[in-house]
Amino acid sequence: MFTLEIDGTAVAVINSDEASAKDLFTCDGFKEDIRTMTTGGKPLWNGTSALKVRAATEDEIEIFEDALAEDDGEGDFVDDPRHTGGDTDEEDEADIVFLVDIDEDEDEDEADA
Q1: Are 2 and 45 in contact (CB under 8 A)?
Q2: DSSP bridge pairs for 14
Q3: How far apart are CA 77 and CA 45, in angstroms?
Q4: SS3 state at 67
Q5: Measured between alpha carbons, how far is 43 from 6 in angstroms, rounded to an integer?
Q6: Are 16 and 10 in contact (CB under 8 A)?
């Protein structure tokens, strides 16, 4: 497993090999996502800081495994064509767990009201 680190903060963990982790964490679609996602009202990535991909620590792996164990599979996942590489098999898909709290979209909050 590998971790995406931005400015010294571990942001996300992926269960893939290093090459796949680097490809996904540095693809244009993912970079656009982390520029628009916020934590504590601040963007996850400012668009200029280096995106460091490194081996995940034992603690990060444990957080990842716990998050997947709690996942009921009923999320709002929508396949994003920006993240597809063409001929990918389902078994080649990797899971990503964010290690920081992601702010909820205001639109989602309003829809729940």
Answers
A1: no
A2: 2, 96
A3: 22
A4: helix
A5: 11
A6: no
